[in-house]
Amino acid sequence: MEALGVKGKPKNWTVCHIWGYDDENFAGKSNVVQDQRFYSCIGNMIWLPTPLKGFTDAVPQIKECLRVFAFQLYGWACEHEDVRTVAERVRSGARASASKSSSGLLGHRDIRSTLVDAELQETQVRAGSFEPGYDDNSCMQANPRLQALAVLIGEWTTIGAHPMLPGKTFHGRATFTWLESGAFLLFQSHIDEPEIPDGVAILGTDDAALDAGAMLYFDVRSVSREYRWTISSNVWTWSRDEPGFSQRMVFTIAEDGQSIEAKGQMSQNGQPWEPDLQSTYSRVTRVSRQKARCRRTASLGSLTSNRPTAASVRRPPAHRTRLIRRYWTKWVKSTRSPWA
Q: How confident is the model at residue 18, as a pLDDT?
């Protein structure tokens, strides 16, 4: 705790080691944990809520991710002989590259994993500080032709209706985030009700068209479509003209940038245009995020306590708790952290 600059022991929080036990049954010794050089190294520590402390011992994916993040933050990977191979992989970036190219924990890019990106980019855009090199491909630069759509960046809640399903209200969310440092725009949408499919689209530009571009769309039905989009003042439109199925959507963005009215139309087999999905987008602010967290907490239990209940938390095995406590007590009595 001294190495982390904390006095006393905060209730329900535990310091765990990133480089330590790789055996969830604690059947063997951990020379890394027993080595005082690494036991008290700040780059080998993470502060977790006590119910989650077992993750650093029992979940290999989480341990590997934490080691990569620690290296990115401190530039340090454990030098102990027992973990030399893993440390070299972390230093060379092989683990990070493998994770991004796979469907693992770091590579998964669904709508939930982009909310943090969306919030950060929204803050940068509003502050005028969004610069090329924010995301993974620092060699790419922002597309100036897409800056007209920067007002969309962020997280939104949606509520809408469809004329083919009268009396039905659809609730969902959407995110707009930059791809490749702003070279492209990623649009992801989710509707809670099953009648409307979840979809994802990537927007780009064409030098031959001013204030316009293309949008490639795909959804969970395995439907793929290409749309053309245009923007004029605060009206963003995307459309598709095909004999079998034509569609267009008009987004009218409020002057304060906090809401959007979306009105869709469709035409099948050359028939006249008829109404399609109609939605209202509301920007998710920090305040509304906090209210949403409170609502989720209220649905799980009392709002007056942050302490987990016995029914909701699975306690770690007693032998694991005793072992950690014994090592910690032994170390505290025998030495003072050189990193403090």
A: 80
